[in-house]
Specification:
seven-stranded antiparallel beta sheet, signal, disordered N terminus, alpha+beta, Glycosyl hydrolase family 95 catalytic domain-containing protein, 711 residues, 6-hairpin_glycosidase_sf
């Protein structure tokens, strides 16, 4: 309770900081993120590392740069999403750039990561020698730029060294650590000072130099070295300045797509850092990032730096859908679709139909831990289907569903429809480990666990959405009765008594409880099988389970825990207080949470803020459903299920400025934000119908703007 009281007192003091304006304003979004620069007063400590560096991070969804080193020896570590080793079966470091400035030995250190513009600025002073260094990874191309300015009163000599792999290079080189092996990746690298062909420059006071890098893989170009050299030769200081303007334009457009503004500025900053991290490491048309994003600083990455399907690969994308950045998730579907043939083959090996996937996969249909490392879990493929469900729910993009989404969903359906057993009027799940290796399964054995709650939740959501998807596409009509039967007769969530209260049991038979992780609530979220329209008894059990588990800090579960709590409206003040406490205690300087592992998945807890401000679970929109009514807040253009962009404000306990843009013309179902008051509907800013009731449905047209106002 002390944490809650402290948070409330802090929030009361901050109330004056929220400016009142219409939600949804693009300029609001820019001004808010502009206030959330990340400051660094010392160099990074945990770099190079086999996990997540604590350094300032830059990226364009493909190339990543992590910045380290003291002022006299700055280091820019370079990674790239598509650079995976054959022998390591993991992403590998590309190399690094070093700025050696002996005159700055012992200099002061001050650096900033400007998320709005996606640049890093460092200022280093040693008596009358002052150097300002700016770096950015081009949002629109395969370039890295390092701009060096002498802002002191005497000349400063800078020596620049480039390392490709472990080899020092003069200006360019080709890196292929697995040369001669099938499917080996190549990197072409070219770099130079744009003002000189030398790697040493003496900067006079008030002058600048730009060091440019062009970087391409064999995925980008058939001859990546020649491509890099050609690209570098086309650059000049003037062109670099023009590219920087375009780079800022890309990020400005990105930030204008949504915003949130709340009273706790630490939590708010983490919401923005979540968006920044994901836009920096994942981009349409590129290879999906692994556990550590594109910030690879070692060739021995923990857990292969791979795509773990029992939550890790999905988790970084949790917040992208409702934050109106669903396109960031597109590399995910490419990676999963590339596993269909592999999964079909593995399923046949076990005598099953459809697709069956192990825990560990990589890009291009690979499996770093071996083909059958499933740890007794049958749920990996249906867990992998969740982002497919979300992308379609939030975008209603039928063209994507037909071309990219439905094929994998159908393969998962084939597996489960044939795998489920029907006994005594219900469908049951046999031999499916709730945790890796539980129920005696080990790495590739058979688990004795039956009806794990996570898989039950995943299947409930999966089959509901298969019905909707097939109807929208006009396919598989003859299969729908079976799917409906599974939804209606799937076994209920198992329960047990603990400390005098009914809580969920992890499985019906087998594993009853687990003392870490958050699989005990993942059927709520991310599986999405329980929400505010669920049976009140089920919601009560969900609250009891949260009390019993109390996993407010969990190395593997923080990505899902807070959102699950919000989804069932569990004590909003407690959620905010614990979220703030976790950010205060477990954030690295770059605002990534660190628990000893986890990587980019640890950007995900901020999704809880979206769910507290706006829920659209199963297509029902609720405004501020799990938010303290005495805490002012507002949001703009959050994306809701049904392809709606929604904006609103809560001020002095009253919901205001409700606006909805219907992208696809779907029916809009809303829980009345003003309880039993009548509501005036505006269509494209003109008065339309008046509605009343606890909830109501509104027909919409594609592109139509809907406004709501209480009467």
């Amino acid at each position: 309770m002390k944490k809650v009281k402290f948070l409330f007192a802090a929030i009361v003091l901050l109330k004056a900081s929220i400016a009142v304006s219409q939600p949804g304003s693009a300029n609001d979004a820019l001004s808010i993120v502009d206030a959330h620069k990340i400051f660094f007063s010392a160099p990074a400590h945990h770099i190079p590392t086999d996990k997540m560096p604590d350094a300032p991070l830059l990226g364009n969804g493909d190339i990543g740069v992590a910045i380290a080193g003291s002022p006299d020896s700055l280091a820019f570590y370079i990674g790239k999403n598509d650079f995976w080793g054959v022998q390591t079966a993991a992403p590998m470091a590309v190399g690094k750039i070093q700025l050696l400035v002996p005159a700055l030995s012992g200099a002061s250190y001050a650096a900033t990561c400007d998320m709005r513009r996606a640049v890093w600025d460092g200022t280093f002073a040693n008596n009358n020698r002052t150097l300002s260094v700016r770096s950015w990874v081009d949002a629109n191309g395969n370039h890295i730029f390092i701009e060096i300015k002498n802002t002191g009163s005497v000349s400063v000599e800078v020596n620049i060294k480039a390392t490709l792999g472990n080899q020092l290079i003069e200006h360019s080189g080709l890196y292929n650590p697995d040369e001669g092996k099938a499917n080996s990746r190549k990197i072409g690298f070219a770099a130079a000072l744009l003002q000189s062909n030398m790697n040493v420059i003496k900067l006079a006071p008030h002058t600048r130099a730009i060091y440019a890098v062009a970087l391409f893989s064999d995925i980008d170009a058939s001859d990546p070295l020649r491509k890099a050299q050609s690209e570098l030769s086309s650059l000049s200081s003037k062109k670099a300045d023009a590219l920087f303007i375009a780079h800022q334009g890309w990020w400005e457009k990105f930030w204008k797509r949504s915003f949130v503004q709340i009273l706790d500025k630490v939590i708010e900053q983490h919401w923005y850092s979540t968006q920044y991290i994901m836009a920096s490491c994942s981009r349409d048309g590129k290879i999906a990032p692994g556990l550590w994003g594109n910030w690879i600083t070692s060739n021995k990455t923990a857990w292969h730096g791979d795509y773990h399907l029992n939550y890790n690969f999905q988790a970084p994308y949790y917040s992208t859908y409702s934050s109106n950045h669903a396109d960031i998730s597109l590399p995910y579907y490419d990676a999963i679709n590339n596993m269909i043939l592999f999964g079909d083959t593995l399923a046949k090996h076990h005598g099953w139909k459809g697709v069956f996937l192990p825990v560990s996969i990589g890009p291009w249909g690979t499996s770093p831990e071996g083909p059958d490392s499933h740890w007794g879990q049958r749920s990996n493929a249906v867990y992998a289907a969740l982002p497919f469900v979300w992308y379609y729910q939030y975008t209603q993009d039928k063209a994507w569903l037909r071309k990219e989404g439905y094929a994998f969903m159908r393969e998962v359906e084939k597996f489960w429809t044939s795998y489920l057993t029907f006994e005594n009027g219900r469908y049951i799940i046999e031999h499916d480990a709730i945790h890796e290796g539980s129920g005696g399964a080990g790495r590739s054995g058979v688990s004795e666990d039956m009806n794990p709650i996570l898989t039950l939740g995943l299947l409930k959501t999966f089959y509901k959405n298969m019905l909707m998807m097939s109807e929208d596409l006009g396919v598989d009509k003859t299969l729908r009765e079976k799917w409906k039967d599974i939804v209606e007769k799937l076994s209920p969530f198992p329960t047990q008594e603990r400390n005098g209260k009914t809580v969920f049991r992890y499985t019906e038979k087998g594993t009853a409880w687990w003392n870490d992780n958050t699989l005990g609530i993942q059927h709520i979220f991310p599986a999405g099988a329980i929400g505010l329209d669920s049976d009140p008894a089920l919601l009560e059990i969900s609250h009891n389970m949260i009390d019993a588990m109390a996993r407010w800090v969990d190395g593997n579960g923080s990505s899902s825990w807070y959102t699950a709590c919000a989804r069932v409206n569990y004590q909003p003040e407690k959620i905010l207080a614990e979220l703030r406490s976790m950010y205060d205690k477990h954030s690295m300087p770059n605002k990534i949470l660190y628990f000893g592992g986890g990587g980019i998945e640890n950007a995900s807890p901020s999704l809880a803020i979206n769910e507290m401000l706006l829920q659209s679970h199963e297509g029902v929109i609720r405004f501020f459903p799990c938010w303290p009514q005495n805490f002012d807040a507002r949001f703009g253009s959050l994306r809701a299920v049904g392809a709606f962009l929604v904006s609103a404000e809560l001020k002095n306990g009253i919901v205001q400025n409700v606006a909805v843009l219907s992208e696809k013309g779907r029916p809009l179902t809303i829980v009345n934000p003003w309880s039993d008051r009548k509501v005036q509907v505006y269509r494209n800013n003109k008065k339309a119908e008046i509605l009343e009731g606890a909830r109501f449905a509104i027909k919409t047209l594609s592109g139509e703007k809907i406004g709501l106002q209480p009467l």
